[in-house]
Amino acid sequence: MTDAELPEPVTLAELQLAARNHGLPLEALRYAVTPVGLHYVLTHYDIPAVDVGEWRLGVRGEVERSLSFSLDELRDLPAAEVVATMECAGNGRARLAPRPVSQPWLLEAVGTARWRGVPLPTALKRAGLGDRARQVLFTGLDRGLEGGVAQCYERALPIGEALREEVLLAYEMNGSPLPPQHGFPLRLVVPGWYGMTSVKWLSSVTVLDHPFSGYQHERAYRFRLAEDEEGTPLSRMQPRALMVPPGVPDFVTRERIVDEAPLRLEGRAWSGWAPVVSVEVSADGGEAWTRADLEADVGSPWAWRSWSFEWAPTPGRYLVCCRAVDAAGNGQPVGQVWNLGGYANNAVQRVVVSVV
Amino acid sequence: MTDAELPEPVTLAELQLAARNHGLPLEALRYAVTPVGLHYVLTHYDIPAVDVGEWRLGVRGEVERSLSFSLDELRDLPAAEVVATMECAGNGRARLAPRPVSQPWLLEAVGTARWRGVPLPTALKRAGLGDRARQVLFTGLDRGLEGGVAQCYERALPIGEALREEVLLAYEMNGSPLPPQHGFPLRLVVPGWYGMTSVKWLSSVTVLDHPFSGYQHERAYRFRLAEDEEGTPLSRMQPRALMVPPGVPDFVTRERIVDEAPLRLEGRAWSGWAPVVSVEVSADGGEAWTRADLEADVGSPWAWRSWSFEWAPTPGRYLVCCRAVDAAGNGQPVGQVWNLGGYANNAVQRVVVSVV
Fold first, then answer.
1. What is the largest distance, in Å, between two alpha-carbon atoms of chain B?
2. Are residues B223 and B346 in the same domain?
3. Chain-chain contact of B254 with A94 (C-beta, under 8 angstroms)
4. Which of A187, A215, A233 is the last residue of a domain?
5. What is the largest distance, in Å, between two alpha-carbon atoms of chain A?
6. Are A117 and A157 in contact (CB under 8 A)?
7. In this structure, are B229 and B244 located in the same domain?
8. Which A residues in the span 224-253 are in contact with B, Cβ-Cβ below 8 Å?
9. Most exposed of A190, A353, B150, B351 (fewest Cβ within 10 Å)?
10. Both A228 and A245 in a single domain?
11. Do A245 and A188 belong together in one domain?
């Protein structure tokens, strides 16, 4: 009735990543803003130890004047808050085969936080954008070897995206300084985009007059079907609806046991492309779908919306699914759609539920 | 040169657990007290949603008077703080074969927190221990099916252990209310014991006149070699030393690249039986061992001690290991020692390091 085994078993290398990184236990979808420690975390290399007394952020490149900020100096600039849902581009990867050796997410690589910091345009305008500005490169302090390339983690944004007011140089998460694993003392937050863009442990912001061609753009985070294909870079999050698994779990299988029906199914849905306009629920594995109620959102266009569905099942075994559609018409496939990097797999969630 | 594959691949059921629960990324051994979100978490079932306005702790059973406390009432009692290292009894399970379907920890299921709460003896004395008191049962609000048995998670302590002053009914972790995943609003903390004993989301404390025989005692958390063996219950943590992996990682293999030698290896070591009195390091996979420096501890007999080792390797590939011995003479084996439940496997850590 369901996907009881993976098409390809998990290797030691994948387990090592799964033991370090972690997802949102799906019952934590109940929180509009995800508590620290429940928000997903993915770090490519190690969490760096940063001495905040020594740390500075450099702003340089195609600017009128290079700048350097201490954390206190950034805190003295006008601040903004954005509640944003962030999802890993690799969410859903574990059910693909073959798949690259990387973090084997099932569906839990998501979270919503209240980020506070300096709008990126504020910092860029202080430096004075040069006429040739085309992209902005963000360099983290986290360092390692990937695909044979020694690197600090870095990613770039097109200048138009970098000038969005809601893009933050964030120093707070949920009202507290960033935890080490979320980028202390400063990270980028790009609402609407997959998480790989929101570079953590920022050390510099460099305005470029050309497209950046580093590892995390040219080799990783591209949607492609073959190695020799140029492919398209990942950017915004595909729509996805997830439900709080109803009832209680079996420890081993995580199948659900529901002993009180009717019940209310609840969850969250998001898309980086446009607002979610519809969530549907299926209790038969994706054959028949019924519209769920979309609730008021958490007050931010960049955060997930909550949904609910009154369900009155008779005793039996069900494969319960949910799916979202956004205002741009993007939806979710019922089955897995393969790609080389295992990215942006937004196939619908399937939860086995026994109503007793 | 090392354990490049698991003896048995990870299944979907194990991955589901690994995606929910999470360990301490080993570079976070650098923190004497583990920041929230980096401390290991294991939950058998779901994290319950607790309405603290409705919640109460019951104290009952073999007592002179049954009591019931709100969180505010507990906060009004005399409080104590304990810095304690907590490790999952299943830490090290993933390298065993065959192994039960459970959380496939490598080595990262540990953390140290500053817990604050009411000493358990204070609460028990308020209720008045009956003469027949033999064990104390702790019942959590987390509910599920395990081994075919519907249950709330619950574990008991012998009365002598329950009366230790450092056993806490804890409502704070690192100076803040417990995060949901660590047992909000109240959990038990039993310093020195494996984590299964420190029941989260406490709803009741029941003094028993007999040994408790629930699932988590009779079926789980026993050290045994065959199903039909009675075995011995898990209790205190075996000694273990872990190191902060030196240098920087390769993303996929997590092997380490060190480009600056000599260097200082650092880590932490603990035992639930007695203070750690010695840590040794090997750079050749456990053939030759040299004593490391044990540093001042973090001011608590229940917390790990830090250690360091000045290492001056020539370029080459090394299999670096560390091991601890406690004052009771307990040590760590170099190889895996199998048991049915995959518990208490304190085989030494092995880190592949390329010095370039």
1. 69
2. no
3. no
4. A233
5. 69
6. no
7. no
8. 245, 248-253
9. B150
10. no
11. no
- For residue range A217-274, list pLDDT tens digits in order: 999 999 999 999 999 999 999 999 999 999 999 999 999 999 988 999 999 999 999 9
A65 and A110 within one domain:
yes
> Are B220 and B244 members of one domain?
no
What confidence tens digit (pLDDT) does each residue in B214-267 have? 999 999 999 999 999 999 999 999 999 999 999 999 999 999 999 988 999 999
Helices B12-20, A12-20: crossing angle, 10 deg rounding: 20
Establish if A2 belongs to a structural domain. no
The C-alpha of A353 sits at a distance from chain B's nearest C-alpha, in angstroms, of 13
Q: Domain of A295: which CATH number?
A: 2.60.40.650
Residue A177 in domain:
yes
Domain count, chain B: 2
> A140 in helix, strand or coil?
strand
Separation CA A196–CA B304 (nearest Å): 35
pLDDT-derived band at B296, boundaries 50, 70, 90: confident
> What residues of chain B lie within 8 A of the CB of A147, using their CB?
251
Q: Are residues A227 and A269 in the same domain?
A: no
- The alpha carbon of residue B206 is apart from the nearest alpha carbon of chain A, in Å, by 24
Give residues 17 to 36 of A whose Cβ lies within 8 Å of B. Answer: 17-23, 25, 27-28, 30-31, 35-36
Is the CB of residue B187 less than 8 Å from the CB of residue B228? no
Structural domain ending residue among the three candidates A233, A254, A277: A233
Q: Which residue has the tokens 């996907």?
A: A3
**How far is the C-alpha of B153 from the C-alpha of B37, rounded, in Å?**
22
Q: What are phi and psi of B31, to 5 degrees?
A: -90, 125
* Strands A290-291, A276-282: pairing kind: antiparallel
Percent of chain B with pLDDT over 70: 99
Give the ipTM: 0.95
Residue A1 in this model has a pLDDT that exceeds 60: no
pLDDT at A2 over 80: no
* B333 close contact with A: CB closer than 8 A: no
Distance from CA of A131 to the nearest CA of B (A): 37
SS in 3 state form for B264-286? EEEEEEECCCCCEEEEEEECECC
The token pair at B309 is: 């080792």
Report the CATH number that the domain containing residue B124 is assigned in CATH: 3.90.420.10
Express each pLDDT in A104-154 by its tens digit.
999 999 999 999 999 999 999 999 999 999 999 999 999 999 999 999 999
Between positions 80 and 109 of B, the ones with CB within 8 A of A are 94, 101-102, 104-106, 108
Cα B158 to Cα B197: distance, rounded to the nearest angstrom: 11
Which of B3, B6, B8, B12 to substitute to test the interface with A, most A CBs within 10 Å? B12
- Predicted pLDDT at B4: 74
User: In this structure, is residue A5 part of a structural domain?
Assistant: no
**Within a domain: B5:** no
In angstroms, what CA-CA distances link A59 with A126, B58, B157? 10, 57, 58
pTM above 0.90?
A: yes
SS3 A129: strand
Which residue intervals of chain A are DSSP H helices? 12-20, 71-75, 120-127, 159-162, 215-218
The answer to whether A38 contacts B180, with C-beta atoms less than 8 Å apart, is: yes
Does residue A33 sit in the same domain as residue A152? yes
Cβ B24 vs Cβ B72: under 8 Å: no
For residue B59 the two structure tokens come to 């104290």
Q: Do you find a cis peptide bond into B301, omega within 30 degrees of 0?
A: no
Q: Is residue B297's pLDDT more than 90?
A: no
